[in-house]
Write a structure and sequence with these properties.
This protein is mainly alpha-helical. It has 9 helices and no strands.
Length: about 150
């Protein structure tokens, strides 16, 4: 499931990397493969792919309207929690949420971290952001967006 049809598999990049005798040569030959779309390009494309408008995503994500539009324009950079809010705004599955985090340059959700585990569970089960916040609150874990759980 490549994001671009001309991209090679990550496993192929690993093989090439570990076989190369020159990191500089590897970087030059594979420069195009190591370029990710910007976060704003990615979320704009995801909107189009899903037939959605940014306004609806922003509202479902429970993000302040003007800030949300700045994220789509690329004039503001999101925090990890804001990316997670957008994942819920997109009604994303786990795979899409992980791609959103990757394009934002953030660490992936990790199932050995309690809060991440709860969020992964909620994404997998198609919870809304409000339902997810309730789960986090009940488990006394930090809410998405910095709110306190107590």
């Amino acid at each position: 499931m490549n994001e671009q049809t001309n991209q090679i598999r990550t496993s192929t990049l690993f093989r090439r990397l570990f076989k190369t005798s020159s990191i500089k040569e590897y970087m030059e030959k594979n420069a195009d493969e190591m370029r990710l779309q910007s976060f704003s390009e990615y979320i704009t494309g995801l909107c189009k792919k899903k037939g959605e408008v940014p306004e609806r995503i922003i509202r479902r994500a429970n993000i302040e309207r003007s800030f949300g539009h700045q994220l789509f324009k690329g004039t503001k950079k999101p925090s990890r929690d804001t990316v997670l809010q957008l994942a819920f705004g997109f009604e994303a599955d786990v795979d899409t949420a992980q791609k959103l985090l990757k394009h934002a340059g953030m660490s992936a959700l990790y199932p050995r971290v309690k809060r991440d585990t709860a969020i992964l569970y909620c994404l997998h089960n198609h919870f809304t952001i409000v339902e997810t916040q309730n789960v986090l609150h009940e488990m006394e874990l930090p809410l998405i967006g910095g709110g306190k759980s107590k």
